[in-house]
Amino acid sequence: MLDFIRIACAVPSVRVGDVKKNARDICRYMEQADQKGADLLVFPEMALTGYTCQDLFFQDALYQGVLEGLEEIVKCSAEHGALTVAVGLPVRLGMQMFNCAAVISGGVIRGLTPKTYIPNYNEFYEKRWFSSASQVPEGAEVFFRIGERRMRAPLLSKSLFRLGDGTLMGIEICEDLWSPLPPSTELALNGAEVIVNLSASNETIGKAAYRRELVKHQSAALNCVYAYCSAGSTESTQDLIFSGQSILAENGKVLAQTDKPIATDYLLIQDCDLGRIRSDRRKNKSFQDAARGIAGSAAVIETFSAGLRSDGGLYPVEKLPFVPSGRQNRIGRCMEIFHMQVAGLKQRLSVLGDAKAVIGISGGLDSTLALLVAVEAMRQLGRPASHVYGVTMPCFGTSERTYRNSWDLMRALGISCKEIPIREAVNLHFSDIGHDPQVHNGTYENSQARERTQILMDYASVVGGIVVGTGDLSELALGWCTYNGDHMSMYGVNASIPKTLIRWMIDAISESEAFGAARAVLQDILDTPISPELLPPDAEGKIAQHTEDLVGPYALHDFFLYYMLRFGFAPSKIYPLACRAFQNDFDAGTILKWLNTFYRRFFTQQFKRSCMPDGVKVGSVSLSPRGDWRMPSDASVRLWLEELEKL
Fold first, then answer.
1. Distance CA 511, CA 127 (A)
2. How far is 16 from 569, CA to CA, in rounded Å?
3. What pLDDT shows up at residue 273?
4. Does residue 318 lie in a domain region?
5. Is residue 430 located within the same domain as residue 545?
6. Which portions of the chain are predicted below pLDDT 50?
7. Are residues 261 and 343 in the same domain?
8. What range defines the domain where residue 142 resides?
9. Residue 181 gets which letter from DSSP?
10. What does the alpha-carbon distance between residue 6 and residue 215 come to, in Å, rounded to a whole number?
11. What is the pLDDT of residues 389-446, one digit of tens each?
12. Of 302, 337, 363, which closes a domain?
């Protein structure tokens, strides 16, 4: 199950008081939304009459029109059985009248939710016409005549509506969201995964941005999908203007919104991922603790709608989920991460007294970022860059380009530099263990990595320092590191930085004035193919061993890693998401191949992560057994691979 729901917000060109025209428009939008595969359709507050009727709400003629218009909408819903609709209208009950949302599906009014907080300040006079949900009598029901049927609908202040596949929806109306304790809070704690808000919020300077942040915040605080739909510009402009702003947010992120400052007569439609909501709620014990004393206080009303239809085709899927979109946003985020890395290393160095930082410099991305972090940490500690010791250790696979870049970078940064060739030492080791150096297997490669680590550890002892690790999150996920080789250090500054982000990190840092002298070499390092350089160069002296040819594209692996760790998604969901995200880059078979590789390596390489060095967590995903991920090293991958076989 993909766990997507398709939600539409419809803002008709309401004609105030013309209920027949408004009902026809509502039915027209129901047909459009159904054709587009929507599961849920939300209309603004008082969409059937217009919000600005004022004292016309007391007129019997208007209310008779409401009953007739509602009958037309209910009959229309019978023709669109897969669609659940929430429409705003006034509802009379005895001597009271309520500002309500009617939930309709399959030709039945499933229930009525009244507005709780009735604004009566500044431009608002709603208490002149409407009572609060707090004044609804217990067990209240409203009866309607729909054709030959007499239909009754519960009028409840606290109710949830069960949609297809068991998804629970809660409703609040306009002012409810602005209150200190919005009804949506209690509804979410009772299990509502989707909150809809039928609104008629007039426009004033700055209010659109405020509404957007309010919706965004509430969706984050409640770990929910929040659909906000507000009345459009054809409401009465006697004293106010309405902008028709609609917003669809998911767990703190706005997925879709109106792009015009003043709008009406449109349909905004978007897929939302309930899987993300459910994953975060399962992990968020504070949410569960808050719900403990409130759960069960809301009634659940069945809509008897079919299963959710959405396949997630309208959901925005980014190829690089770890990389912020937009240049300025990306630079800002990368520098924020950089300063977290610096703060972690700075603290570690400060508690060790006058400790130096020792780093193996390869001319590749990972060691470059670690070196930049170390230099900045020393600067903030008030120590010279020479307290950072860069060690380059050329061997069989070192290319001229990476060798040159290593030296150019160290000199540009003004650190202490040292070259220790390891070819002879490794050959001696081969002789000791009886390995033929012409056999380029795992022994050939791992011996070089372990020799380099031994040198760094011993050299750190000589200069009075610690070895700063360079390995990144993607390598840890795949186990693409030599156990007790480059896998080991005394502090791993890149431990929670994925490979796809490291490129952008270095690009952002290179624009800093503090690293201006190294800008040219940093750009060349960014252009260098990713390689551990453990196999000899080709005939032209170029890098022969390209990591992504062996283990797979890091863009794919980081994508798999993000959705597996961040949300716990199954292969059956990650695979179609990846196919959509990378449809212009890889065919489906290639994606499936590397997804198999990812799961096999992730499970079999956990033992390396179980004893990984300290390293600060900077994002939502980390593989440290202390900072986030806990997993047995001998767990079986069988279920995951069997699911892949079915794809």
1. 58
2. 47
3. 98
4. no
5. yes
6. none
7. no
8. 4-302
9. S
10. 18
11. 999 999 998 889 999 999 999 999 999 999 999 999 999 999 999 999 999 999 999 9
12. 302
Catalytic residues: 45, 115, 174
Q: What are phi and psi of 579, to 5 degrees?
A: -60, -35
Q: How many CB atoms lie within 10 A of CB 418?
A: 16
Please check whether residue 381 is in contact with residue 349, taking contact to mean a CB–CB distance below 8 angstroms.
yes
Per DSSP bridges, beta strands 356-360 and 388-392 are: parallel
* pLDDT of the residue at 538: 61
Torsion angle (degrees, nearest 10) of CA 546, 549, 551, 552: 120
CA distances from residue 355 to 348, 456, 540 in whole angstroms, order as listed = 9, 14, 42
Task: Locate 231 and state its tokens.
Answer: 């009345």
Q: How confident is the model at residue 56, as a pLDDT?
A: 97
Would residue 521 count as lying in a domain?
yes
The dihedral sign for the CA sequence 362, 368, 369, 372: positive
Q: Let me know whether 238 and 358 are in one domain.
A: no
Collect contacts of 400-403 with beta carbons under 8 A, ≥24 apart: 400/537, 400/541, 401/363, 401/524, 401/528, 401/542, 401/543, 402/362, 402/363, 402/364, 402/528, 402/533, 402/543, 403/363
On the 0-12 / 13-18 / 19+ scale of CB atoms within 10 A, 182 is buried
Whether residues 641 and 538 fall in one domain: yes
CA distance 290 to 292: 6
Look up residue 44 and give its amino acid. Answer: P
CATH of the domain at 188: 3.60.110.10
DSSP string, 260-289: SSS--SEEEEEEEEHHHHHHHHHH-HHHHH
Identity of the residue numbered 328: Q
Pair 398, 388: CB distance under 8 Å: no
Amino acid at 155: L
Burial degree of 309 (CB within 10 A; 0-12, 13-18, 19+): middle
Task: Tell which of 268, 302, 336 closes a domain.
Answer: 302
pLDDT digits (tens, 9 = 90+) for 10-36: 999 999 999 999 999 999 999 999 999
Residues 535 and 632 in one domain: yes
Alpha helices, H only, 352-495? 365-380, 400-413, 423-433, 442-463, 473-478
DSSP state of 179: S
Please report the pLDDT score of residue 543 as a whole number: 54
> Is residue 224 in some structural domain?
yes
Number of domains, the chain: 2
Q: Does residue 307 sit within a domain?
A: no
CA distances from 386 to 83, 357, 382, 420 (A): 68, 9, 12, 18
Q: What is the pLDDT of residue 616?
A: 92
In a shared domain, residues 295 and 338 = no
Tokens (6 digits) for 323? 């990389």
Dihedral, CA atoms, 347, 348, 354, 356, nearest 10 degrees?
Answer: -120
